[in-house]
Design brief:
It is built from six helices and no strands. The longest helix has 24 residues. The chain has one domain. Helix 1 runs antiparallel to helix 2 and helix 2 packs across helix 3. With about 120 residues, the protein is mainly α.
Length: about 120
Amino acid sequence: MPLWSVLLVVGLGAGVLSGLFGIGGGIVIVPALIYFAKFGPQQAVGTSLGALLLPVGALGAWSYYKGGQLDVRASLLIAAGIFVAAPLGAKLAQTLEPVMLKRAFGVLLLFVAYKLFRG
């Protein structure tokens, strides 16, 4: 399968899941880029952030806003935190060995899964 078609399928899947569950980048796109497109972890994260910049943020949020399901104040406060912290996380990720970044991500996913099933 050509890389462009893999990337398009990843985007379609992430689009549906981001609209449905509010996820996409870390849970769907990054692992898909690592395993199906053979990207390194840092390249997968950077590509995911670039892809999510407009379509999910603007179009997904607009749909929820029209449905009365968007807390603008909360979104802006979270965005302020992301604005400050994302560059720090990106710098940290680039200092880690790819295997360590993958393992840390796996631990995060296990923790989230545990909390969701437990709660």
